[in-house]
Amino acid sequence: MPAQSLGGTWTLPAARWYQTTAVARWKTAGRRGVVALPTGSGKTLVALTAIAELGVPALIVVPTCVLLDQWSVAIANVWSGKVGRIGDGNHDIQPITVCTYASAAIWASRIGDRFGVVVIDEAHHVGAWCSSEVLEMMVAPARLGLTATPPPPGGELAERIGPVVYSLGVADLTGDALAEYELVSVPIALAKPERERYRTQRSRFANVYAKLARRERGQMDWRRFVDQATRTADGREALDAWKGYRSLIAYAEGKRVAVRELLAKHRGERTLVFTADVATAYQIARELLVMPITHEIGRAERTEVIEKFRTGEITVLVSAHVLDEGFDVPDADVAIIVGGSSSARRQVQRIGRVLRPREGKKAMIYELAVLETTEIDDVRRRHGKTEPGDAVAQQPARSVAREPSVGSPKVSHRGLAGSPMEGAATESSMETPVRMPILVRRSSGSPTGSGSTEPVAGEASQPITRTLADPVKGATGSPSRRRLISILTRSSLFTGGAR
């Protein structure tokens, strides 16, 4: 289809029903607004369709150099004109130009009047990583934000781009644009020495936090706590304790056993292992001789590794955060979530990495969580549910320690333990037993508990969520490897039993 003022022609693939609807909703809303679709469902095509239909110069603003490359290639595949690039050593302005957040902050005041439509990828970063001032300097009347999870109403995103005009979750597209999948919760039991260490460090941290919170009359956020704690010896010890127990549950001995056995169970299948921090990713890579993907690996090596994963020469990749967002990962069959946070957005992005559809494919997703720790609350919060008896549901109305919220770069992306953490996760009481979900339960919503704002045409298959009945214990606890093998063998997940 010929462009009106772009100097090139388009050869776009046919859009799916929800992509067409998304563009129509955006146009109806005055060509301003956010489209929220799951990872792997084709948000790029939504944007390119909108640009092609408008036929005006377009600026696509992306968070990373990796996405700069991916968008440039995606546009070049469907448009005959030259693609402009600003960022990563490039400064070439064309009718359709891709620009990084960082470069947009520098050049927006000088190029903001050259484009009729601006597209913000990973739009949930607007107001944080992507400064709202960038959009203030853009005169483009048409604005489109893309994200994997719908942001809350209002805020700078709504003000600068517009409200959410169309939103679908993972469950809405499962069996249609996304592969069917099964989500398995694997409870992990701490060995006695680990449990004692966790309780000691958790108590040391919580006591100091409570004292500072009382002094601040309950108005204590994480950044203020860190600022206050670093000024005293007790505070610094509390921060060390926080790092200690977070590191403990990030890769407890039971998780070691589970990861080994799950990788053995799915030997030869392309598998992505997600961890809570870079240190754990490297630890798994060393112990199991699998390839890590981190920010410290150069672009050339990363590209080579991804290509080997695509061809099957490498079958396992382990990563803390690099693969979560803005990275074109080849089709994978299995995801093992060793650690994470309470962030529903990160959960959607991780799950989306294994949901690329393929004939007969059913993705397997394993979520490891340590019992009787704050990690259980994170899991429940991601799934949007709590039950009577849960630690998080029994917290008294008082100031409690909250984990850092670093969804924006205003807080260090490395965090105190060297790993980003998202969402303010209320800490649980260590003495409160936590009940895991029912053994087998068919989910009626998305893996984050968020619903859809758009009825789905036809009846999509629903994902299955289950929890293994017995917790996995490490070598210093009771049975470890043989116990896990027995659990996996008995589970109807592997035997094809009734659900």
Could you please describe the fold and organization of this structure?
- With 499 residues, the chain is of the alpha/beta class.
- The chain has 3 domains: 17-167, P-loop containing nucleotide triphosphate hydrolases (Rossmann fold, 3-Layer(aba) Sandwich); 180-188 and 249-387 and 429-495, P-loop containing nucleotide triphosphate hydrolases (Rossmann fold); 193-248, no CATH class.
- It is 37% helix and 16% strand.
- The protein has 17 helices and 17 strands.
- It has helices at 17-28, 43-54, 65-78, 101-111, 132-136, 155-160, 170-173, 192-215, 222-229, 233-250, 253-265, 278-288, 299-311, 344-352, 374-382, 481-490, 492-495, and strands spanning 32-36, 58-62, 83-87, 90-92, 96-100, 117-120, 142-147, 164-167, 180-189, 271-274, 291-292, 316-319, 334-337, 362-370, 440-442, 464-467, 472-473.
- Strands 9, 10, 11, 12, 13, 14, 15, 16 and 17 form a 9-stranded mixed sheet that branches. An 8-stranded mixed sheet has the order 4-3-5-2-6-7-1-8.
- α1 (17-28) crosses α2 (43-54) and α8 (192-215) crosses α10.
- The longest helix has 24 residues, at 192-215.
- The protein starts with 16 loop residues before the first helix and ends with a helix.
- Residues 386-465 and 476-499 have low confidence and may be disordered.
Task: Name the shape in a single word.
Answer: globular
Q: Total number of β-strand segments?
A: 17
Biggest beta sheet summary: 9 strands, mixed
User: CATH H level of the largest domain: which superfamily?
Assistant: P-loop containing nucleotide triphosphate hydrolases
- CATH fold label of the largest domain: Rossmann fold
End-to-end span in angstroms?
49 Å
Helix content: 25-40%
* Proportion of beta-strand residues: 15-25%
Number of helices: 17
Radius of gyration: 23 Å
Overall structural domain count:
3
Highest-level CATH class of the largest domain: Alpha Beta
Average pLDDT works out at: 76
Uncertain segments of ≥5 residues (pLDDT<50)? 386-465, 476-499
CATH architecture descriptor name of the largest domain:
3-Layer(aba) Sandwich
Structural class computed from helices and strand pairing: alpha/beta
